[in-house]
Amino acid sequence: MTANEKAKAKTEQAKGKTKEALGSAIGNERMAAEGQAEKSSGDAREAKENVKDAFKH
Fold first, then answer.
1. pTM to 2 decimals?
2. 5, 50 Cβ separation under 8 angstroms
């Protein structure tokens, strides 16, 4: 996994988790859903990079 892609995935996951928690805390379902989607996108990016790494070795 390239360092840049790994950083993007972790950043996206963290932003999504924060946004999801904030949305839940203030009762904003839309914000919570957007945060969950961002977190899932970060998870998918990380999984994609892990698969690419597995085939490199």
1. 0.81
2. no
What is the phi-psi region of residue 2: left when phi exceeds 0, alpha when psi lies from -120 to 50, beta otherwise? beta
Q: Which residue has the tokens 């070795």?
A: 57
pLDDT value of position 28: 97
Are the CB atoms for 17 and 28 separated by under 8 Å? Answer: no
Q: How many C-beta atoms lie closer than 10 Å to residue 34's C-beta?
A: 15
Distance of CA 12 to the CA centre of its chain: 4
Q: How far apart are CA 6 and CA 25, in angstroms?
A: 29
